[in-house]
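Q: What residues go here?
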């Protein structure tokens, strides 16, 4: 029995994202020296967290996605030992920075996409847990504070290699153009589009799971040394410039040019690391181009997970049928303009 305090669940959800342009330029090895540009958008697929406060001096963490559960004695600081460390590290920071005493609760997370997706999975989970604690204890954390705290938990406290776009995107929500520079400075600019452009963009996009698992940490580790290689560094510079061009095409509603530039950016991204793509991904992509796709890319670090395409609306049904019959699973979505939110049930 859980011996709950009041039977209320403190809930939170955060949207996943697709990375449209500039991916990788938010890594500190690049942006500390050159400044990174990222264009991304959150979608109507979410990570959820619920917290039930208890008084039994126990902490229970559950992940439906990972099919993992641990129960441990409540303490002021939990030891990171390789078992659900992101959950423990999030608890540790909430206690250290705000609550200042041990807590007793059950916490469960679950999401609407597969693991290792390339849509910002683990970072979105961390943001959602922070928002659930924020809701539970009325911490009144700003979107910027939640994102910064999530980044520190994942990248510094646990030591997972990666950039900063996922935490800020999940917290803020919407279509964003982000600038990452030295000393962890992050600027988030909302990309404001009229309804017609949003509808045109939605009607021109396909998001699908390739059924290929990702090994993103391996890719991110390799990217840490990329700026020492001239060709790879030049490709990163092109990705950065293209992110700004993609933003301009979006604002102009030029979906055709957006798709063609995505194709160019995908080629640049593949030239950075041999791990970004593989023969199966290349084959899927080329077959979609043959059927009328304008361009696209793997979302996230690469190597598998989700791919999205920009297509001519008249060709969309044909390409969707091809993907569902041969290559993966198409996910319907809309753009989500709210970031992480919390409520009580």
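A:
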């Amino acid at each position: 029995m859980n011996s709950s305090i009041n039977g209320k669940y403190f809930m939170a959800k955060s949207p996943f994202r697709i990375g449209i342009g500039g991916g990788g330029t938010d890594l500190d090895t690049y942006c500390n020296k050159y400044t990174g540009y990222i264009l991304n958008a959150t979608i109507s697929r979410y990570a959820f967290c619920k917290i039930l406060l208890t008084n039994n001096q126990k902490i229970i963490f559950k992940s439906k996605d990972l099919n993992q559960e641990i129960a441990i004695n409540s303490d002021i600081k939990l030891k990171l030992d390789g078992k659900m460390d992101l959950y423990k590290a999030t608890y540790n920071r909430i206690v250290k920075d705000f609550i200042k005493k041990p807590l007793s609760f059950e916490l469960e997370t679950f999401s609407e996409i597969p693991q290792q997706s390339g849509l910002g999975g683990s970072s979105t989970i961390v943001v959602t847990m922070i928002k659930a604690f924020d809701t539970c204890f009325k911490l009144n954390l700003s979107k910027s504070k939640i994102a910064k705290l999530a980044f520190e938990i994942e990248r510094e406290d646990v030591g997972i290699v990666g950039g900063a776009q996922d935490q800020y995107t999940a917290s803020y929500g919407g279509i964003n153009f982000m600038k990452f520079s030295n000393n962890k400075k992050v600027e988030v600019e909302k990309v404001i589009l009229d309804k017609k452009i949003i509808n045109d963009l939605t009607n021109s996009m396909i998001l699908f799971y390739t059924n290929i698992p990702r090994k993103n940490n391996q890719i991110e580790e390799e990217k840490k040394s990329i700026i020492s290689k001239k060709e790879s560094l030049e490709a990163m510079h092109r990705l950065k410039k293209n992110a700004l061009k993609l933003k301009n095409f979006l604002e102009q509603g030029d979906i055709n040019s957006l798709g063609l530039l995505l194709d160019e950016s995908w080629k640049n991204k593949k030239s950075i690391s041999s791990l970004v793509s593989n023969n199966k991904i290349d084959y899927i992509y080329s077959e979609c181009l043959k059927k009328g796709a304008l361009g696209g890319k793997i979302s996230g670090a690469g190597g598998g997970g989700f791919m999205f395409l920009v297509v001519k609306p008249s060709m969309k049904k044909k390409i969707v049928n091809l993907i569902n019959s041969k290559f993966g699973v198409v996910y319907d979505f809309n753009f989500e303009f709210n970031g992480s939110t919390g409520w009580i049930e």
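A: Context that may help when evaluating the design: The longest helix spans residues 230-252. The mean pLDDT is 92.
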